Amino acid sequence: MLNMNTGVIIMLDRKLLKMLNEQLNREIYSGYLYWSMASWFDANNLKGFAHWMKKQAEEEIDHAKKFYEYINDRREKVEMLPVEAPKSSWSSPLEVFEDTFAHEQKVTEMINSLVDAAREANDHATFEFLQWFVKEQVEEEANAEEIVQKLRFAGDSPSVILMLDQALGSRED
């Protein structure tokens, strides 16, 4: 951003830039985690659950792209950080979705921290950019929690699990 009074390019606050790069990494990790969950479902012949997780992974990578483009648009350098290996084994579909819900809650905390940092830096553009993610996280948590509740209701009923598998296989977005 150009300061019209001085002609100097205004860079992102260093702390905020570091946090944005870390969030980009966490979004990539989220995609990686959901692919790991999809792999577990595929290995357990629950193709609908796997399909849902693959769609979720794609969505998370799209989120990472948004951070990448925003950092570039602000004329800053994207830092590609190492991506940690995700968990790869669960005992049940319920455990997978409990982990999904907990993960989305953690992502919400990270987004909220970014919003707070943007406010502290008085960075209106970054604050506005992050509002999309604030709204998105409400949806992400609600979707994961809804499936957790259905799986808790299903208990050990194979027929209900298979019905949920079929329903989740129809996810389009």
TrEMBL record:
Molecular function terms from GO: ferric iron binding; ferrous iron binding; ferroxidase activity; identical protein binding
Database matches in PROSITE patterns: FERRITIN_LIKE
Catalytic class of the enzyme: oxidoreductase
Keywords, comma-separated and alphabetical: Cytoplasm, Iron, Iron storage, Metal-binding, Oxidoreductase
Pfam family, one: Ferritin
Domain Ferritin-like diiron, residue spans: 10-155
InterPro entries: Ferritin, Ferritin-like, Ferritin-like_diiron, Ferritin-like_SF, Ferritin_DPS_dom, Ferritin_prok
Name used for this protein in its record: Ferritin
Keyword check for Magnesium: no
Keyword Cytoplasm: yes
EC number, UniProt record: 1.16.3.2
Family: Belongs to the ferritin family. Prokaryotic subfamily.
Signal peptide boundaries: none
Entry's Gene Ontology BP terms: intracellular iron ion homeostasis; iron ion transport
GO cellular component terms, semicolon-separated: cytosol
Localization of this protein: Cytoplasm
SUPFAM superfamilies named among the record's database cross-references: Ferritin-like
Lineage top rank: taxon: Bacteria
Amino acids binding Fe cation: E27, E60, H63, E104, Q137
